[in-house]
Design goal:
Elements lengths: L6 E4 L15 H4 L5 E6 L11 E4 L5 H11 L5 H12 L2 H23 L6 E3 L6 E5 L6 H10 L5 E2 L12 E5 L5 H17 L1
Parallel strand pairs: 1-2
Antiparallel strand pairs: 2-3, 4-5, 5-7, 6-7
Helix pairs in contact: 4-6, 5-6
Length: about 200
């Protein structure tokens, strides 16, 4: 890195990898101490836990420790201790295996159910969402409104972009729904798309 810069690697959901072996983290490949690795337990355990972590280059540890002490003098010691016991006891690894299997089933159900819709589905190998690119000319905001009237909550991909996107799309989440709910939701989404 010629600019003497650091790269921040935000790896919030790599634990949920469904196809091939996961790619190694950049931080693990970094021989020059230029990658700051950021992780969280909010996605893999539950959002209210609010525990995250950093893997820092050695030369940054003291500076980050100083900033951490200025931000909060009372870190969540109890939660950290319980999480440590959970990990050391092997419960975290079992939880990840169980959830990875469950989410893989739900992801497969979403991919199968959406085959009949006029969407171009982008299904990353990891994560908890897919993207459905809309047919040319379909308005994403109109679809969100129509879907809401059919009992389906959608989020436009444009909500995650600072610049206007050439294509319109919707975010399709599968982690919080059963296979039956996914199938029903996709049927309702199809009805909403026909109504737009």
């Amino acid at each position: 890195m010629g600019a003497n810069a650091y790269l921040v690697e935000d790896d919030y959901d790599s634990e949920y990898h469904y196809t091939k072996r996961p790619l190694p983290a950049l931080q693990g490949l970094d021989d020059h101490g230029r990658v700051i690795y950021v992780g969280t337990f909010s996605k893999v355990l539950y959002p209210a836990l609010r525990l995250g972590y950093l893997i820092l280059p050695t030369q940054l540890v003291d500076a980050f420790r100083t900033v951490r002490n200025l931000i909060d003098t009372h870190p969540p010691i109890l939660e950290q201790a319980v999480l440590t016991d959970f990990i050391v006891g092997g419960h975290f690894a079992r939880h990840l295996r169980r959830m990875r299997h469950l989410y893989a089933e739900r992801r497969a159900a979403l991919l199968e159910a959406t085959q009949k819709l006029p969407l171009e589905i982008i299904a990353p190998e990891a994560g908890l969402h897919c993207v459905g690119w809309l047919p040319a000319g379909m308005n994403d905001r109109a679809l969100v409104q129509a879907a809401a009237s059919h009992g389906v909550d959608l989020v436009p991909v444009a909500n995650f972009s600072m610049e206007p996107l050439e294509r319109k799309g919707i975010l399709l989440s599968f982690s919080e729904y059963t296979v039956e709910q996914i199938q029903d939701g996709v049927r309702r989404l199809g009805a909403a798309m026909r109504a737009v």
